[in-house]
């Protein structure tokens, strides 16, 4: 038997047994406590023993359980009893600190059930270790509030989740467990330096708008243009399907085969695609009218100003053929309900395309790890310090420095103080780098 089998300086191995392929190790501490843990007195007497089962890292592929013969002491000075401390054991759980550290790192990748099978630790306990680790990671990160904030949703694990991005940098800065107004408003209310935000880009989800208006009063809200244009293409595709139902199989397959032609701008079509569109104009006049209407709606977003865009929309609305008006009904209703925020695009020219890209990457990460919980997925993407995480130096001035800066500013001075240690603040997760890491299997 190797007395140093555990490689723990505070314990000595007494016996090793094989129990159904697992190692059960009996051990004892080498040094008894010198003082009472309650009063500090050195006047101690033995007061019994107990056996504690501690989980440790696997050895040679075998799960390890350590039975520590723990001594109990009574202090003659204060009369209180205590068990001898176990330096190598985690304060909160019956496992070694090295196993806890190992589980913290591993819990971001394999499922909890797999780690439970490898170590013998219960999956619920591993979940609690992960929760503590994720909270520590979160506490160690401070995210910079962006000037242009993007809010969108991604459907993960049977639920829509709110995703926040720094639009100018195209960095993900937060993922929330749902997209309810209360959850979104709480996050926005807790943002530091909310005065930095000069614009918020959202999709047409009313709780986002309500939460932003309540927590960020006066900040312009812009409906992402891609969501609006997507509705125009969706209307055209719905009509294509309706028309296709009435056609013989051969023509229906042709319409299906060239469905990608309809969403494209006419200027982007090649000669073959334009010819196909001309053929449809003879066979499907309603579809041709709808395609022209779609093109006219897209032209609205080429307007140089808000007033010109509003004028173009009024003219487009008035020119819609009654035959296809119902086709664009959802788009007309959306524009009526969100007109102010839709037209705000022409004042600020911001889009949520960055958030749309992040959603695709988040789905890719989910596909790589079936069985992840949302919390694990969020920690893996957002909290873990991987290659896509961008940090920058940050100085957090203390109270005295803030006052001194105000006095210096009043006197016309602008010299920074050198007595505050620099920190780091997170800018978020770079989406393009995140994609590279996913393709390499590094996340």
From TrEMBL:
<feature type="domain" description="Transposase IS204/IS1001/IS1096/IS1165 zinc-finger">
    <location>
        <begin position="33"/>
        <end position="78"/>
    </location>
</feature>
<dbReference type="InterPro" id="IPR029261">
    <property type="entry name" value="Transposase_Znf"/>
</dbReference>
<dbReference type="Pfam" id="PF01610">
    <property type="entry name" value="DDE_Tnp_ISL3"/>
</dbReference>
<dbReference type="InterPro" id="IPR047951">
    <property type="entry name" value="Transpos_ISL3"/>
</dbReference>
<feature type="domain" description="Transposase IS204/IS1001/IS1096/IS1165 DDE">
    <location>
        <begin position="149"/>
        <end position="381"/>
    </location>
</feature>
<protein>
    <submittedName>
        <fullName>Transposase</fullName>
    </submittedName>
</protein>
<dbReference type="InterPro" id="IPR002560">
    <property type="entry name" value="Transposase_DDE"/>
</dbReference>
<dbReference type="Pfam" id="PF14690">
    <property type="entry name" value="Zn_ribbon_ISL3"/>
</dbReference>
């Amino acid at each position: 038997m190797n007395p140093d089998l555990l490689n723990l300086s505070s314990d000595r191995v007494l016996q090793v047994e094989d129990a159904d392929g697992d190692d059960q190790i009996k051990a004892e501490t080498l040094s008894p406590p010198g003082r009472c843990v309650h009063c500090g007195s050195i006047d101690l007497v033995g007061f019994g023993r107990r056996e504690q089962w501690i989980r440790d890292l696997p050895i040679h592929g075998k799960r390890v359980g350590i039975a520590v013969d723990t001594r109990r002491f009574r202090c003659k000075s204060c009369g209180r009893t205590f068990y001898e401390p176990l330096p190598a054991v985690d304060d909160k759980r019956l496992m070694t600190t090295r196993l806890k550290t190992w589980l913290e790192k591993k819990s971001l990748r394999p499922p909890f059930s797999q780690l439970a099978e490898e170590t013998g630790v219960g999956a619920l306990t591993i979940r609690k270790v992960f929760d503590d680790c994720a909270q520590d990671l979160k506490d160690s990160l401070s995210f910079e509030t962006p000037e242009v904030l993007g809010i969108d949703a991604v459907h993960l694990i049977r639920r829509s989740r709110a995703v926040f991005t720094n639009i100018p940098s195209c960095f993900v800065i937060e993922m929330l467990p749902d997209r309810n107004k209360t959850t979104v408003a709480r996050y926005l209310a807790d943002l530091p330096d909310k005065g930095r935000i000069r614009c918020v880009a959202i999709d047409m989800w009313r709780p986002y708008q309500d939460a932003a208006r309540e927590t960020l009063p006066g900040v312009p809200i812009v409906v992402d243009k891609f969501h609006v244009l997507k509705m125009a293409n969706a209307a055209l595709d719905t009509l294509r399907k309706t028309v296709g139902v009435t056609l013989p199989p051969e023509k229906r397959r042709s319409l299906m085969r060239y469905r990608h032609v309809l969403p494209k701008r006419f200027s982007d079509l090649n000669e073959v695609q334009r010819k196909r569109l001309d053929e449809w104009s003879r066979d499907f006049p309603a579809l041709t009218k709808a395609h022209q209407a779609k093109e006219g709606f897209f032209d609205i977003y080429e307007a140089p100003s808000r007033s010109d865009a509003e004028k173009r929309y009024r003219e487009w609305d008035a020119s819609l053929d009654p035959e296809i008006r119902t086709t664009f009904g959802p788009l007309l209703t959306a524009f009526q309900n969100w007109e102010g925020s839709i037209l705000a695009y022409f004042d600020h020219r911001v889009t949520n395309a960055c958030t749309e890209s992040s959603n695709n990457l988040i789905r890719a990460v989910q596909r790589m790890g079936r069985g992840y919980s949302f919390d694990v997925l969020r920690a893996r993407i957002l909290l873990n310090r991987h290659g896509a995480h961008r940090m920058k130096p940050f100085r957090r001035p203390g109270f005295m420095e803030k006052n001194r800066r105000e006095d210096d500013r009043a006197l016309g001075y602008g010299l920074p103080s050198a007595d505050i240690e620099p920190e780091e603040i997170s800018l978020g997760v770079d989406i393009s780098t995140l994609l590279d890491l996913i393709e390499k299997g590094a996340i």
